[in-house]
Every structure is written in C-alpha cells, then in structure tokens.
C-alpha cells in the first residue's frame, strides 16, 4: 500500500482527502482480512489511501500510542523547532519498533506528496488534516469541544512531523522506497 501511495500519491490531486468507493473499500478490506491475494495496483489510488487510513485507525492504542497522548500534544506548545524535534525523537524512542518503522515509511510517503503539493494540492497542513485523526486519539472519550481542540493539536503535530521528517527520521527517509 505504502509503495503505491509513494508512487502515485504525489501526482494525485486530493490524495487522502478524497475517499475511495465505500463498497470497494469494504470488499477489499474483507479480502485482505481473510488473507486473500489483492492487487491494489488495479484499484483506484483513493481506495488504497482509504484502506491505509482505515488500517491506521485500527492499530490498537494508535500508532503514536494513546498512552503517550499528553506528551505528544505538549510538543505542539513547546518553544522552538529544535526543542520540538528533540522531544519528538525521545517520544519515538518509546514506541514499539514496528510502529517506528511504519511511521518512517508513512512520513516518507507524506514528504513525497508534500514536495509536489503544487501539483496535488496536498501541502503539509492539508495532509495533516486528513491523516492526523488516524494517527493519535486520546485514551478516553472526551466532550466534543475537548475533542475538537485535541484534533487541532494532533493536526499541528502531524504537520510539523511532515515538514520536518528528514530532521526527525533522518535524510534516508528520502530513499526508503528506492528509486521509483
């Protein structure tokens, strides 16, 4: 999925914003969940993006770890970018290895899409609005007002992660998918 999103996402206007066909997504998810072979290259890239966001939303406790939720949110209010980057790197060290690997590839994809935002209309802010709710959520339910404020902070965090992913994850983030 990520490889397809890396290849096609940068040239696709509204990637992650537009949803794939709900029926097709449901059918493909059922096939994937049953272990059946699925050729996503034959599907709309919007279906792949929708399936990937659904996958992220179904990671128990979220990919960024709901247990670290308050710490992630506090990063947004920290002073300068260097402090934020150091705090983020410390938080990443507390995540399970599988989450870190997936995050690196995810932000490699988002970075590639952002680099061509003039073509696809998906700058870091727009990407963050679309993908942030799939990356982190509070460990307990909240009131709509609190949830709205939380969503804004997570979006700011994801925007910062996208804009600074090379400094956070290392320059090799640009070559994770090899030469496409």
Find the CATH topology: Phosphatidylinositol 3-kinase, Chain A
Q: State mean pLDDT (0 to 100 scale).
A: 94
The DSSP helix count reads 10
Structural class: mainly alpha
- Helical fraction equals 55-70%
Keywords: GTPase activation, Phosphoprotein
Domain Rho-GAP: 1-169
GO biological process, one term: signal transduction
Organism: Baryphthengus martii
Describe the structure in brief.
By secondary structure, the chain is an all-alpha fold. It has a single domain (1-174), classed as Orthogonal Bundle (Phosphatidylinositol 3-kinase, Chain A), CATH 1.10.555.10.
How would you characterize the overall build of this protein?
With 180 residues, the chain is mainly α. It has one domain: Rho GTPase activation protein (Phosphatidylinositol 3-kinase, Chain A). Helix content is 61%, strand content 0%. The chain is built from 10 helices and no strands. Helix 2 packs across helix 3, helix 4 runs antiparallel to helix 5 and helix 8 crosses helix 9 (144-163). InterPro entries: ARHGAP20-like_RhoGAP, Rho_GTPase_activation_prot, RhoGAP_dom.
């Amino acid at each position: 999925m990520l490889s397809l999103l890396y290849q096609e996402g940068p040239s696709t206007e509204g990637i992650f914003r537009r949803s794939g066909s709900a029926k097709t997504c449901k059918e493909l998810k059922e096939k994937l969940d049953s272990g059946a072979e699925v050729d996503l290259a034959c599907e709309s890239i919007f279906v792949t993006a929708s399936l990937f966001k659904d996958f992220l939303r179904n990671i128990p406790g979220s990919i960024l770890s709901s247990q670290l939720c308050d710490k992630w949110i506090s990063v947004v209010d920290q002073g300068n970018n260097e402090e934020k980057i150091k705090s983020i790197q410390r938080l990443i060290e507390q995540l399970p290895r599988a989450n870190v690997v997936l995050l690196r590839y995810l932000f490699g994809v988002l970075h590639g899409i952002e680099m061509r935002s003039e073509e696809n209309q998906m700058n870091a802010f727009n990407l963050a609005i679309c993908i942030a709710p799939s990356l982190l959520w509070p460990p307990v339910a909240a009131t709509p007002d609190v949830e709205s404020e939380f969503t804004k902070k997570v979006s700011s965090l994801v925007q910062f992660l996208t804009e600074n992913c090379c400094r956070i994850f290392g320059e090799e983030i640009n070559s994770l998918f090899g030469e496409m």
